[in-house]
Amino acid sequence: MKIVVAGTGYVGLVTGTCFAETGVTVTCVDIDKEKIKLLQEGKTPLYEPGLEPMMKRNIEKGRLSFTTDLEKSLEGSEAIFIAVGTPPGEDGSADLQHVLKVASEIGKNIKSYVVVVIKSTVPVGTSEKVRKIIREELEKRGVDIPFDMASNPEFLKEGSAVEDFLRPERIVIGTENERAAEIMSRLYKPFVLNNHPIYYMDIPSAELTKYAANAMLATRISFINEIANLCELLGADINQVRKGIGSDSRIGNKFLYPGPGYGGSCFPKDVKALIRTAAEKGYEMKVIAAVEKANEYQKNVLFFKIRNHFNNNLKGRTIGIWGLSFKPHTDDIRESPSIYLIEKLLQEGAIVKAYDPAAMEETKKVLGNRVKYASDQYEAVIKADALVLVTEWPEFRLPDLKKMAETMRGKVIFDGRNIYDPLEVRKAGFTYYSIGRK
Questions:
Q1: What is the pLDDT of residues 164-190, one digit of tens each?
Q2: Within a 10 A sphere around the Cβ of 112, how many other Cβ atoms?
Q3: Which residues are catalytic?
Q4: Which residues pair with 79 in a beta bridge?
Q5: How many C-beta atoms surround the C-beta of residue 143 within 10 A?
Q6: All domains in the chain, ordered by first residue
Q7: In contact, 120 and 43? CB cutoff 8 Å
Q8: Any residues with CB less than 8 A from the CB of 185 and at least 6 apart, and which?
Q9: CA 16 to CA 63: how far, in whole Å?
Q10: What's the chain's average pLDDT?
Q11: Sheet architecture: strand order including 198-201
Q12: Confidence of residue 405 (pLDDT cuts 50, 70, 90)
């Protein structure tokens, strides 16, 4: 079976590589010539555990290739996946220009039947927009080539995307007829053999499922953050409260960890897009709007704690930052709480020394030389007035507190992820702040 994946960003590259791993012949297409050249050499432009070796293996076996030539790639392909970015517009709506551009190119180049599958996260109704553009391009060519639309939203977690794709909790496929459903069934047959559930539904329902899932997860994060803030006011411990409510089978314990707000490429933009989609239909998403508002506040919680500790004067203070990516095991800094915090600290005149195992280069593209970059976590706190743990990378979990006490100018730690034992940290001579704990 042969398919095309349009877009070699995070979703497209993982999708193409993992399908190739199951035996499908995959051609990944992108307009970025430099990126394609890099990929043809077997190198990934992004950090994702396990992706690069799998990509190299499938290139060598001839199942995975990269090109800028969409027309040639479509020859003999049964499906084309649209997996380009849909960044948020100024009004919060999803920017579909890249999706619609691919649709136009498909209409200009297809010569035989194909299923056009939208993998990008898009608002309900996008499939119809794509269908219209393809038909318009076919009419300009004076040809009547059949095609079908399908929606196949991704549910990948950065840092474990390869595992998520190959061993998914569920696969959602929106189709409109048996012909498209049959092709999608054959494509996902290896997953059925491994007992991974597939849910077939209509296209609008599939499109909405992705947004609804991310909005629910964002809601849980904002909920537990609000409870954590209340814990501090009442003298309660969020870790105890979290365990107490998470043991209820109706609630569960996932996504009940307090922190400095959610970030990344999905939750912030998808929550905004869902609110915007509802507004266009004259409906106010009251709960989801409150989730976004709560998260905007939570992004400032660590900053408030730091500023209060230093009596509202951060000018000239050196702050060590551990963690720049929005979560561990990725170099993605989009909507990262750490980047947000650093910007606030710099505005107050603080000096920032930062370290992250994977996201240093991406951070330099955004913050440039306004930040000092350390070669390891301990260099980041030499002569620092405080340490702020923002991203819970595994290597930060067991710090050498004695070594830190000897090199830091100030003995204070702000633990944005509640990963340290307060008694142990205080015993080492540090003042300790966390979120939602005594």
A1: 999 999 999 999 999 999 999 999 999
A2: 12
A3: 266
A4: 3, 115
A5: 11
A6: 2-201 (3.40.50.720), 211-298 (1.10.1040.10), 301-433 (3.40.50.720)
A7: no
A8: 192, 198
A9: 10
A10: 96
A11: 64-67, 25-29, 2-6, 79-82, 114-118, 147-151, 171-174, 198-201
A12: very high
Percent of the chain with pLDDT over 90: 95
Can you tell me the distance from the alpha carbon of 204 to that of 181, in angstroms, rounded to the nearest whole number? 15
Q: Which amino acid is at 124?
A: V
The answer to whether the beta carbons of residues 317 and 385 sit under 8 Å apart is: yes
Q: What pLDDT sits at residue 88?
A: 83
Strands ordered across the beta sheet of 372-373: 372-373, 351-355, 318-322, 386-389, 412-415, 431-433
Neighbour count for residue 437 (Cβ, 10 Å): 18
In Å, how far from its chain's centre is CA 331?
10
364: confidence class by pLDDT, cuts 50, 70, 90: very high
132 CB-near residues (< 8 Å, 6+ apart): none
- Say if residue 90's pLDDT is above 80: no
Which residue is listed with tokens 């814990």? 231
The residue type found at 150 is A
Reported pTM: 0.90
